[in-house]
């Protein structure tokens, strides 16, 4: 008996807006993710502070071409198959299926594109894992309805779900309702298409939007269970436990509060009700969430089948606002942990943190987990002979996979699979850069959009192939 289950789903993960390009092909509509530029305006736009509802000439929008997977997917999936992928996680771009979001008819070109992509996976025996919404909202729903702050989004989303569930039933078993649902709090425009009015209570808007997403997620879960008999529906959390800066109880308390900010979403999606601490917090802050009478029942009766999450780093916090130096980490500000090294982008590297996070999630929810993102964003320099020696990436992944295997083999955590983030180089969500590369496959494309788009294998390609072939036994 190996340490991991025999049917363990090894693979890789991408998101439509970060890899597809072809942003106006196949009658695709424009989405929030298309109007987020590279460069210094990226953060203000992603936060919903700088209003950008259409593209302009002044900015560069890296998602428009990205790595052009729209035209290269056959070649890319072939390489995934060569690595031995059992599973490929990708997202469907909502605006390819409903270009405006409120269209009467779904767009056949969009459906056909994903059908071909899914068939391509199935031909190689690769299990598709579909993210229904990876940050994207058709722009028309943002400008006309205010995106997720509006209850009507639940219906638009469900209609979209119904179309893709019906079309791909029998082909796709694993679905995620919203990528990193907690990102709504941290990057409200990028994560949920939210724009704010001067002087409004942003927190109240965010939690109202969160409620709509939570209800939409529960109703999508219900629908999937009705339409696809063997469906497995998961939630998706940007995870990474928060450590306390010191053993001062105030710091420990603070770290608990920080974790709850994120757990809040999964508590609802997995346990089926608003947790007591959240209800009390809303009371204290006078946040009055508008609910329909049936919402509590919908949430209670339609919890997810598994908990998926991204993990890049642990976090560190203190009750003392002046304590320590800060660093970045997947949109969450965190203190620098002196025991950890960090990536070139300041994301701290903590393999044991993955095991800690897995145990915390499994203890809390007692449902199977799925690691759907993990990896190292780094600058890769092709050597003179054209090879890309990314030993640093191999080291990162090796240590994280070891920790993951320990969580399963030693701690008994139930884990469905592991899909490495950005298995092929793609556009960074936070920075819009291409030089922040995660892939086993190098794509010749630069931050300014130049490049041949040619694909080549990095050293990590052969390494991951071996890892998968040995079901995680051979990590050398
Ligand atoms: C997560 C997102 C991904 C991905 C990843 C890496 O937040 O789900 O879309 O991009 O983080 O982050 P980045 O691209 O900013 O390095």
How is this structure best described in words?
- It is a single chain.
- The protein has 476 residues and is α/β, with parallel strands linked by helices.
- It is 39% helix and 13% strand.
- The chain is built from 16 helices and 16 strands.
- It has helices at residues 16-19, 42-46, 69-83, 94-97, 108-123, 139-145, 152-168, 183-186, 188-192, 202-227, 249-271, 276-284, 295-301, 351-365, 391-409, 459-469, and strands at residues 9-13, 87-91, 127-131, 174-176, 232-239, 242-244, 306-311, 315-317, 326-327, 334-335, 341-342, 348-349, 369-373, 415-421, 441-443, 455-457.
- The strands form 5 sheets. The protein has an 8-stranded parallel beta barrel with strand order 1-2-3-4-5-7-13-14, surrounded by 4 helices. Strands 6-8 form a two-stranded parallel ribbon. Strands 9-10 form a two-stranded antiparallel ribbon.
- Strand 13, helix 15 and strand 14 form a beta-alpha-beta unit.
- Residues 15, 18, 179-180, 238, 310, 330, 373, 377, 421, 428-431, 436 line the site of 6-O-phosphono-beta-D-galactopyranose.
């Amino acid at each position: 008996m190996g340490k991991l289950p025999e049917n363990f789903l090894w693979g890789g993960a991408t998101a439509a807006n970060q890899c597809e390009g072809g942003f106006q092909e196949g009658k695709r509509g424009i989405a929030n993710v298309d109007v987020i530029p590279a460069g210094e305006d990226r953060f203000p736009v992603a936060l919903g502070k700088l209003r950008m509802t259409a593209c302009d000439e002044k900015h560069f929008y890296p998602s428009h071409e990205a790595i052009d997977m729209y035209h290269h997917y056959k070649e890319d999936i072939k390489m995934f198959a060569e690595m031995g992928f059992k599973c490929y996680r990708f997202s469907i771009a909502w605006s390819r299926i409903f270009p405006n979001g409120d269209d009467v008819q779904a767009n056949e070109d969009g459906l056909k594109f994903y059908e071909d992509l899914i068939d391509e996976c199935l031909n190689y025996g690769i299990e598709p894992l579909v993210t229904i919404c990876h940050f994207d909202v058709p722009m028309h729903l943002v400008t006309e309805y205010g995106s997720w702050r509006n209850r009507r989004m639940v219906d638009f989303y469900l209609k979209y779900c119904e179309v893709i569930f019906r079309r791909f039933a029998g082909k796709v078993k694993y679905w995620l309702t919203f990528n990193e649902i907690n990102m709504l709090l941290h990057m409200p425009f990028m994560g949920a298409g939210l724009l704010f009015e001067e002087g409004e209570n942003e927190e109240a808007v965010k939690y109202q939007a969160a409620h709509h997403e939570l209800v939409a997620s529960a109703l999508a879960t219900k629908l999937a269970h009705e339409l696809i008999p063997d469906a497995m529906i998961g939630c998706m959390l940007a995870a990474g436990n928060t450590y306390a800066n010191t053993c001062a109880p105030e710091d420990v308390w603070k770290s608990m509060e920080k974790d709850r900010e994120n757990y809040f979403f999964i508590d609802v999606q997995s346990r089926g009700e608003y947790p007591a601490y959240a209800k009390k917090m809303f009371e204290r802050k006078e946040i009055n969430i508008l609910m329909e009478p049936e919402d509590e029942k919908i949430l209670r009766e339609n919890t997810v089948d598994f908990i998926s999450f991204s993990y890049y780093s642990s976090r560190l916090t203190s009750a003392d606002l002046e304590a320590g130096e800060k660093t970045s980490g997947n949109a969450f500000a965190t203190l620098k942990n002196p025991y950890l090294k960090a990536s070139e982008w300041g994301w701290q590297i903590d393999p044991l943190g993955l095991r800690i996070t897995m145990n915390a999630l499994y203890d809390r929810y007692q449902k199977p987990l799925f690691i759907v993102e993990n990896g190292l964003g780094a600058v890769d320099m092709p050597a003179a002979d054209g090879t890309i020696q990314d030993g640093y990436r191999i080291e990162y992944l090796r240590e994280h996979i070891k920790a993951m295997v320990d969580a399963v083999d030693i701690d008994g955590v139930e884990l469905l699979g592991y899909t490495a983030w950005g298995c092929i180089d793609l556009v960074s969500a936070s920075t819009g850069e291409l030089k922040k590369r995660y892939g086993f496959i190098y794509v010749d494309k630069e931050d300014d959009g130049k490049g041949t788009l040619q694909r080549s294998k990095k050293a990590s390609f052969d390494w991951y192939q071996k890892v998968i072939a040995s079901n995680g036994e051979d990590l050398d």
